Task: structure prediction
Amino acid sequence: MENMKKGAIYITIFLIFAVTLFATCFDFPAYFNQGVDYFNNFSAKGGPASGWNFKLIVPHIPDSAFKLGLDLQGGVHLVYQADLSGVEEKDRSSSMDGLRDVIERRVNLFGVQEPVVQLEGERLIIELAGIKDTNQAIKMIGETPYLEFKEQRPADELKKIEDKGKELEGKKTMEEIQQVPDWQVAFEDSFMSASTPLTGKYLKKAEVGFDNNTMKPMILLQFDDEGAKIFKELTARNIGKPLAIYLDYQLTQAPIVQVEIPDGKAQITGDFKVEEVKQRVRELNAGALPIPISLLSQQSVGPTLGAISLEKSLKAGMIGFLIVILFMIIFYRAPGLLASLALGIYVVLLLAIFKLIPVTLTLAGIGGFILSIGMAVDANVLIFSRMREELREGKSFGIAIEEGFNRAWPAIRDSNLTTLIVAFLLFTLGTSFVKGFAMTLSFGILLSMFSAIFVTKNFLKVFIETKLERIKWLWI
Result:
C-alpha cells in the first residue's frame, strides 16, 4: 500500500514538472524553437548515415509576445468630453455606453491592439498602446465624429438659394460679394440646417452588399427598432427626394429615396467601386456616435520610456524573487528549498496564464504579480511553522506534514479570500491601471494557493520514510 502511495506521488511530481516544462516553452518559445529546428534538420536527413531510421518533424510553439500596456510599450492616452446637452437625463447613461461601444469599434477598425476605452462620468478615456504618433491616434478616432441625416429644404427655400447664387455670378472678390444684400443665403446648405431625429445613435451597422442581378457593390444600412420608426417617417415624406448623410457635419452622400422603408433596412446603390463602398461603410460604422465629443487632453508615452520602465520592473521583480528564495532557504532549510522550487513553478505557470488569456501587463499589473509571489511565500511560512511545531512534539514526519497543512489552511484560506474580495472591488470600481493590478493579483493568489497546498505538499511527501527525513536540522 505504501509503495502504491509513493508511486502516485512520483507520478504527480512527474506531471507537475511536465506541465512546467511545457509552460516554460510556451513562455519563452524562442529557445525551444531553436532546438526544434536543430532536431528537424537532423531528422530530415534520415537514413543509416545519420543513425536515424525514420523522419519526425516537431512543430514550433507559436512565438507570441506578452501583451504590454501603454506604460510599458508606449502609446497614446486621450481624454474626450462628451456633449450631453441635447440628451435627456434618463438617456445619458445609455448614450455614454453607446459612445464607448462605437469608439471601441472605431479603434478596432484601424487594427489597434488591446485598446482600453472606458467611461468616467461624461468623459471618455482612451488608451492606445503601441501608437507612437498622437496626431495619428486623434485622426483614427476623430475629434467630433458625429453621424446625422438631413432632409432637403422646401422648394421655395431652394429657389431662394439658387436665385441668390445667380446674383453673385461674376463677383470675384469678397468685397464685391458682400455688397449684395443677404449674400450669405447663396452659401447655405441645400439641406435642412436643423438635423432630423435620425442620428448615428440608431444605426446598428453598415456593411458591403452586392446586387443579385448586376453584382454591383452597394451599401447596406440597418437601424435599431427606434431608428426604423424614424427612418420610416423620413422615407415616407421624402420619396423622390435626397436624404443627406453627414459625417462630422460634412456631407458625405445624398441618396435619393425610392420607396418608403418600414423595416429599417436600406440599400444605397449607385455606380460605386468596391473600394469606394468599403470606405463609405467604414465611415458610417466609425461615425455612428450617439453624441458629439471633443478632445480634452492628450498624452503620449514614448516606447523608449516604456522599455526603461519594463526593464526596471523586471529587475526589481527578479531581485525581490531571489531575496525571497534566500530567506526561505536560510530560515526553513529543506522545506524552504522545496518551497522555492514550487515558487519557480508558480511563476512559470502564472506567466503562461497571462500569455494564454491574454492579460495586458502594465506597471501596476506587474506590481500585483510580484505581490502575489509574497502571498505565496506567506502561505508556505504558515505551513512550515505548523510543521515545525508538530515535529517538535515528536510526531512522525508524515503526520507532521498533514497536520501542518491542515492547521495552516484556515489562516491561508481567510487571508487569501479577503485579498480576493478587495481585488474584486478594485477591478469593479477602479480605472484601467487599477484593474490591471487587481487582475494579476487575483490570478496570482488563486495559483499561489495551488502552489502552496498541492505542489509543495507533494514535494514534501517524497521524503517520507527516507534517510533525509531523519536529519532533524533540515526540517526543524
Summary: The chain has a mean pLDDT of 82. Residues 303-356 form the longest helix (54 residues). The radius of gyration is 33 Å. The chain has three domains: 1-64, 75-152+191-301, 302-474.
